[in-house]
């Protein structure tokens, strides 16, 4: 007889399933303003606590407090609010367009608007993002034309990608937005490579990699960290922890303890957790990491703690795996409402101006949609040429592809 | 003209390319200070500095992923995967990323990378150091696949690959690294220095990707081969005393179909030889193309000679590796048909 009981496998489960009462009591939230702001040249081992806390600027009263506050002008804050509202309105229209059969697929950002919109403002022209499918805010906040995004979503005759990519997998070198891959985590290490190249060429530009909480389980996440750490690449490694990888809760990828940010510690990479629904906090932390990179101090890992309010994609039904009211119970609130409240508290915004801005933005989005639809949608109107199937596989079309193109009648 | 081994020719190609273009960078496992396990990169770090030739962590996916990012920036990475057998962790980066970046971004981003990797058997490397994965790459649109068979081609093709605007898989037959293989493993190796094709110019020259070379002219039968098997095919034709035309493909993707079709239309018979396993190997593609383009010229079924459909064995590698005897039997078969 053995002195030990039989072994049993531990399979993590979220706190609550559909039908239950949402419970985020396990999410430990620091008070706004409570987390210190270290110098950018701090030794990573001196800020280990920042991988376990949550940096916040906006308090419950809508005030900006603490050492990470005071970095944005009123004008920049109003612009930030507008970007988030625009992304939300864009999402709403495109979600409807998908339901109307105008495209095959869409992924919205509801609840996560602050992450990409604020981050973009910490970068400069020429810097490069390697985004996932949920960072369209990087484009919106950089004033990339919405109509171009819609052309891509509709795969119409003006689609800059000629109908070759899934909707929302945009590409714009000019706007520092690397062509999105559907394969998870592959681009994390590519971001590190881009940053290494910038360092090899003694350039001033930096890169940013993006990944979701679920994809941190991919081996490329770890490859990226080891490369970033080894070569001290000027890269910001972003983890958007929105709690859900389709139906799988974040505990499955994270394991039973620790945080996603803490994974940077083993690589000697400074790691910070930030309130992803706090525009000011996201911006402040992104600026801190960008400055580190620009000062040749190496990579930073940032975990954005947020919540995916909407479905994973238009093919997903979140009510099948989480309580319907879970998003309302999310303790970090709504990023748009929080920034709106802050601006009102500051006296530089009002309910009336907000309502007016919502209407203006919706008009702008509808106008862009009309123009895009004029050039076609997935199943109606103008579409890319069949000839485009064969172009651009290689810089120069090899003979076998030319034969196939001719066989197709083009 | 210098006489070089294939290793020296590969090194010379990188040296010439790095000297001409500051954007060319070389990295991989052990390639920096040590110069690579086969010494292909020896001296490059000392000459060009450690930011242009450097060692990497043991992470093939990381190596290729970083190379893709560097290419997106504007560099031209020439990367060594220590053995082709180790490229599988990077297969996702190669096939889903590198191969498609130009297409999916409509040319907004491109991926001019070269992935060098020693392939094939004949050095007692066992199942983990002897694989020939070329068919796994030729199935992927957006890649180019090159396999040299001698030092002169290795240098010219590698320079072309580094200058190519698209990702190139550069497969180096390690049986040929130090000297030519006359197809007979039991005989002593003749050094490249005694071999006509060991002559390699010191400076810059290129060999176009996508052009095959006729190594032996003949009219009775065509033998299609690449890499180490070119030498086996030549030995088999000599031994059998058959008037065989031996085509060295040099590049599998894109493939020089015209040269193959022209030859087989003339000879009416064909044997395809490769070292990789038979089933779904690259030979199947060649046979299929011949069926489509040369059917009415064929006087016998096309025959394939290939590695067996098993992992590559260590002790029995010379029974696995197609030698002149097996190719000779195939030649006799198609001649008799």
TrEMBL record, chain A:
Residues 6-45 form the 2-oxoisovalerate dehydrogenase E1 alpha subunit N-terminal domain. Gene3D superfamilies: 3.40.50.970. Residues 83-379 form the Dehydrogenase E1 component domain. Signal peptide: none annotated. The keyword Oxidoreductase applies. Its cofactor is thiamine diphosphate. InterPro entries: Alpha-ketoacid_DH_E1_comp, DH_E1, Oxoisoval_DH_suAlpha_N_dom, THDP-binding. Its EC number is 1.2.4.4. Belongs to the BCKDHA family. The branched-chain alpha-keto dehydrogenase complex catalyzes the overall conversion of alpha-keto acids to acyl-CoA and CO(2). It contains multiple copies of three enzymatic components: branched-chain alpha-keto acid decarboxylase (E1), lipoamide acyltransferase (E2) and lipoamide dehydrogenase (E3). PANTHER family: 2-OXOISOVALERATE DEHYDROGENASE SUBUNIT ALPHA, MITOCHONDRIAL. This is 2-oxoisovalerate dehydrogenase subunit alpha.
Automatic annotation (TrEMBL), chain B:
Its cofactor is thiamine diphosphate. It is an enzyme of class 1 (oxidoreductase). One of its GO terms (biological process) is branched-chain amino acid catabolic process. SUPFAM superfamilies: Thiamin diphosphate-binding fold (THDP-binding) (SSF52518), TK C-terminal domain-like (SSF52922). Transmembrane segments: none annotated. The keyword Oxidoreductase applies. InterPro entries: THDP-binding (IPR029061), Transketo_C/PFOR_II (IPR009014), Transketolase-like_Pyr-bd (IPR005475), Transketolase_C (IPR033248). PANTHER family: 2-OXOISOVALERATE DEHYDROGENASE SUBUNIT BETA, MITOCHONDRIAL, 2-OXOISOVALERATE DEHYDROGENASE SUBUNIT BETA-RELATED. This is 3-methyl-2-oxobutanoate dehydrogenase (2-methylpropanoyl-transferring).
